Predict the 3D structure of the following.
Amino acid sequence: MVYQSRLAWPSARDCDRLNSIIFETNINPFGIAAYNPNEPITDFVGRREELLQFKEQLQIVVNNKISRSVKLNGPAGVGKSTLFNFLKESIERERISTRPDSEYILKDYDVFSTYFQIPDKISDFLDIWKPMLEGLRPGFEKEIGYDISLPEYIAFQLIYRMFLNDREKLAEIIWKDIERPQRLYQVEIRDIIDPLFSQGAPAVVALQEYFSLKKRELREAFKARIKGRTYEIKRVDNKNILNLFRVLDEDDSNDYLGLLLEANSDLFKTNDDLINYFNDLMRYYACCTKKQPILLIGIDEAVKADPQVYNIYYQNLGNLFVKLRNTLNDILFVFISTTEDWAEFNNTIKRYTDLQSQLGEYMYDMPLTQMSVDELAQVFKNRMNRFWENYPSQRPLEAPYYPFSENLFEYVYRYKLRDLRDTIHFLKDMWIKFKYLRKIPKFETIFESLREVRKFDARGFNPNTFNRFEWNIIKNSFNDPTRFRSNSARSSEVEKGLEHAWKCLLYENPPTITRVDNNCTIITTSGSRRPDIYLEILGNLGAEFRRKVEFQVKAYDHRGSVALEHIKSSLELFKEQFTDFIYFVITGKGLKPNAEAAIKDLEIRYPNRIRRPILTEDQQDRLYLLALYKEITGKNLDGYLPKDLQIAKDLLSFIIGQSVEDFLSGLKRLAFRRAITEAEIISPPVIEPSPTPQTELTSFDDNPEVTEVTVGRPETQVKWLVEHPRLKPYRFEASALCSYLKTRESGRYKYKFTIPTVEKNVIMPNASLNKGLFRNLVKFMKEKGYIVPEKTSFKLTTIGEKFYLAVKADHYSC
């Protein structure tokens, strides 16, 4: 995602006006986070593919006249309940709609929908019956305007069909003592409810007598043929129907309706009796309406269970699912649970192969993945749209989601690990704090959003706690093609950032670094030179102790390569001994052949004085952070502040691949080199600075450097290779892997890596590393117990951790 670095924002005066509205209102646009059955679905976006799958599953139930189920799974907060209830609301809207077009309520079949959270457990249909009946009530109320239960709804459907078959006679029963409608052919089912309820027992008796007298005629009238299937009322149904009329009598002596709703054991001796009764009710509905009834039942947290009872509970639950499949007709169950809960269920069911095979055809797997940031941001926009609908004339056109912004929505959603529910809770808490403090910060840019959200969450600006997406924000902002006109401009910003970071160390007491300059001028007898970043170590102790370092920065884009003339000045300063050490910070395609040859020659002659690491993606990200530091944080790094000094040290250490203290200690041990001629060093004029990034560094040798080297670099004895000699064929790749793992010493991904990620970020960018050898290394480490696979990743074992610590102790040398 490309973030806009600059948007429009209301003026200070307009912000005061808008803030007064927010401070005085009682409305919190983010007050409700999870699905609320008492509120319409307003946060639904996308999911068209999943809705189509639901429609297909309903059609399978219709065509095959079976019971079927959907396993709706996904991470917590991904919108599983919202998706199902949007489907449920869509069906309920169609039930009351007079429009001819329809997706779910069609000519030959009808869909009822219900949703409820699982009780403590479900072990039989009885545990589903009661919450199912309660869940159906809102749909019936929307359709006919009365809060009634399923048995009552079926009873009224039966009476209404009797009315349509014999209007005059039924009118005498329904409107016994009150004025009947003048046009009986215009009567709808909702019109007969009040008159029947108001009569109570007399209406029940009259209906029972009428049905008993006309039962043969009515059985013929109720017969329906739908999609090749015959529905009819049989002689054995007479008792059920006569009793069903009793639900109209509020004063029934035995409270027959209450017994039905409670599934009383006097009525239903077994769960099978209850299932048969439910199937009968659905058959009566088909006879009355000439439509095949389909029941859509959503059960939330369906397979959530206490870990202590996983085995027995999931086995019983699996048997119940099979029973529902075998005994119920025309039902689509939607069992809703998290991916983790379903994984536990599946692991248990695998132990029972017969049960697993029976469930395989019955359960359709529908995993919900997290939606794109753009799609989910629309949820938050919709909430702010509804808020500002209350103040249409006050809404700011330049910031339509004030006090928030699109950048803020996108950042918070990623910050909360793409959990929709947690994000809404977070925005709700921010809104509350605005009102409490009567102060609203600016969220115009993505970096303003980053620092204000972290401040609100009491985490503050700490790069050590940044998530991958935050580093991507920084990287994408730095590499925005509109930001820099040239590679020179890119490098200049990185230089300034490095300058500020190193200058923080000037404030240590006592200081090791005594001078930091960016693009100072060194005037020699052969001309003037301008090193990118010039450091002096122990400059206050005299020439013999002073060490001079240049950081040569070429932060090019992915297409740029460094020519010899771009670094020639640095090489000349070094050869003339005006600098003791060169550290190359290079991004992009690297060095051109002539530059590569020149540096290799120096590396052979002065092995401890030249460093040019291949930067990992993580190291480059920290360079970009330093370059954009002021834009990100709103201020420059300041060595007076202990926190800033620590941030500077952390970033520099990460970039150079070892602690700053070890790096400087290595520089101090370099042999003294006297400059061939005297030089005058002129600092550049002071300019308002901006932050900088950094690079990687291998460790310095402990032994003093030999001044003249005429042969190749001597091979040093590395301790970890002595301890792990069989890794010697892969020593460079092993060192590179450990260097990658140093950023994963804690947290969720502790000592984990994937082969593609390491290849992309570590192996492939480094010409001295071999992709084939790296894969052989991974295979060898797996065989010898250094690592174990975890899904698509590998993780260090105890032996592997000891190996890693040994490499780390040697500063990742090889």
Q: What stands out?
A: Residues 1-6, 687-716 have pLDDT under 50 and may be disordered.
